[in-house]
Amino acid sequence: MNPFLSTSMLNRPLSAETCQTIVFSAATTPLRFPMRPSEDMLGLHALAEAYGREVYILDRFTAAQLFEGVTLAVYQEVERLFCSSTFRSHRTVWLLLGKFAEEVQMLPPSPEAIWAICGYLSGIRDERVGPWVILSEAQWYIGQIVPDVMISSGTIRMRPEITWIIDERLGRVIAFHRHKVGESLESAIATTLYKALCMQRRPASLTPGGLTWSLPKCLVTDASVAQNVATCCAELDISIESVSMRPEIFDDLEDSWASTLSGRVISAGQFDLMLDTYFQKRYGYGPRTNADDADYAFRHLEGYNRDPALMLPPLRWLLPAYDATIGEDATVAIAGRRYQDDLLRYWTGSEVTARMSRHDPQIAYIYLDGEILCQALEAT
Amino acid sequence: MNNYISTITRTIPDWQQPITTSRVEEFCGFLAMILESANVGYPLIGIVYSDRSGIGKTTAILAAAEIALPPSHTGNPSTLLLELEPETTQVAFVELILRVLGERPRGRTKSQLQQRAIEALQGNDIRLIVFDEADQFGKKTFDILRYICGQSKCPALLVGLKSIREIVKPYEQLDSRSFLTHEFKPIAKEEVLRVFLPGLVFPLWSFDPDNEHHHAMGSKIVSKAHPSLRLIRGVVQTASSIAKLSDAEQVTAEHVDEAIKHIRFSGLYSEPTKPLKADQGDHEALSEERNDAKQNSK
């Protein structure tokens, strides 16, 4: 419901003291998405650098002026939009409130007020839906291999191209992906990294979302990394390094395993199973087998069975992206499917980027100007 | 490392090389046809049957396993040799496949186990499954066998007594796919003397078919025990034990005569008057003896 249409008697402007508390709390709390200089209308940050944190304690008049139009309903709507697992930025929340206000021909709240409220709520958001990430000492190697084996996919016969990720500390393959016909290397790396990161989630009863994520400290690769992968790693505090040496496991696969399959043509599906079984028998860890085992073992746990990209927002950068336009019916059409959400009606005709969920293709994440707008569901 | 995984209870001892008789060669050729069917994309279910037990089907399976199976990749076995329990259930059948492949079952429903077994067969690159004592199968086991082999594109070979054809026939779907059959016949007496007896390895046992005394000894064994190779082996094994206990230097005709006295031949090598369900061993022998005694008393 549009917060600017609330007729409740309790829906009054926030008190000046509350506004002062909100600004001071937001200004002195590190935010994942800091305010852009263009949004700092009062120049508070520049003043703070000169005169200290006390400048964030606004006088009552300035606070009231800054929070003009921010009622209890608006504050609650900001909380609803910001503290959700969609993980919107404070800027997107401000844009949404602007659309709500425009709908009823009212002035929107100031961007600084929304920034302050979001900053004030950031701790609450982390407590409710923030992913519980544990950075380990692991180092992952991303590489490609084209074993000398012939596989058939439909009527096409070819040598499979495989991208895989090796945990160098444990000496085993933790994810692999056989390239689809015509798939780019960047897409394959994103898919493989997505699989590897998804395998790092484990149920934890006392954490938000019921999961912990054990992530590596470093990714090592001898290939160039696409921007979306770099962004994902940056948001997860995973560094990316270049290396020119290949782990020994590469030679094992090329020399030992592939040579025993020479002269045979294997179906693509069976090839994946055979490769996974080989890893399982030789190194004690088959990525696909272990993923299926975990999915089965944890099938009754709500957090584990939700879309991993919903639970760990940086994963969304690794989803396949499609450029689309919001239609007049407030839906987005991509890859033969139509997705809808209530918020899309405010941006009909706008260009967006849709990232289709790998977990459930009926879900797509809609990005407006590079930031998450909503999670859309397939229209029935 | 073996190229196969076997749950067959009867095994060839390590010190006994497989004896390649003409029937074993025929069996290997038939097995090669079954294997080739997978290479051309239409995996078959083949049937090898005989009208009596003890003539060497299981041993032929084990011998073929040593010489005729496709090589595996990565050293993992490429063939399963399975012997099912009588009246085994569908779930037990699928669990057996998972167990011998060292795979963890995932799920408790038949459908989940089936799917897991199909993935396990494909993932382990199993090129052939041989089922011994296949005449023990029930209808439901045949159905699930057909489904799993069809989905995994893995050919299968059913080995058993002649009654297996009667069991398979009513299930038209399976029968229409099992259009490769092979009757496993006993080897000729001359081949027993020329190939089988010389190939047996037992303490103090030595057999030269061109030696007159050996030939006479062998002919006596053959006359009593043929066509059952199991019985022939049993006579030689018993004679070897007797010779060893007598501190003899080698097995002689006297030892063979003594061994023959201790082995029950009655009813075990006569022409069967009805299809046999399975080789019941001593129980069948006792049953046949009782039947013979009743008939003789009448």
Structural overview:
- The complex is a heterodimer of chains A (380) and B (298).
- Chain A has 380 residues and is of the alpha+beta class.
- Chain A has 13 helices and 17 strands.
- In chain A, 37% of the residues lie in helices and 22% in strands.
- In chain A, the strands form 4 sheets. Chain A has a 6-stranded antiparallel beta sheet with strand order 12-15-16-17-14-13, with no helix packed on it. A 5-stranded mixed beta sheet of chain A has the order 6-5-2-9-10, with helices on both faces.
- The two termini of chain A are 23 Å apart.
- With 298 residues, chain B is of the alpha/beta class.
- Chain B is built from 12 helices and 6 strands.
- The chains are: A alpha+beta (380), B alpha/beta (298).
- Chains A and B meet through helix 10 and helix 11 of A and helix 4 of B.
What keyword list fits this structure?
heterodimer, A: 380 residues, alpha+beta, six-stranded antiparallel β-sheet, five-stranded mixed β-sheet, 13 helices, 37% helix, elongated, B: 298 residues, alpha/beta, six-stranded parallel β-sheet, 12 helices, 50% helix
- Number of helices in the DSSP assignment of chain A: 13
Instruction: Report the strand count of chain B.
Output: 6
Q: Give a quick account of the main beta sheet of chain B: strands, pairing sense, barrel closure.
A: 6 strands, parallel
Determine Rg of chain B (CA atoms, Å). 21 Å
Largest interface: A-B, 17 and 16 residues
- Which class do the helix and strand fractions of chain B yield? alpha/beta
Q: Kindly, what is the distance between the CA atoms of the first and last residues of chain A, rounded to a whole number of angstroms? A: 23 Å
Name the assembly state: heterodimer
Low-confidence parts of chain A, pLDDT < 50 over ≥5 residues? none
Shape of chain A: elongated
Query: Please, how many helices of chain B?
Result: 12
Structural class of chain A: alpha+beta
In round numbers, the mean pLDDT of chain A is 88
Order of helices and strands of chain B: EHEHEHHEHEHHEHHHHH
Mean pLDDT of chain B: 82
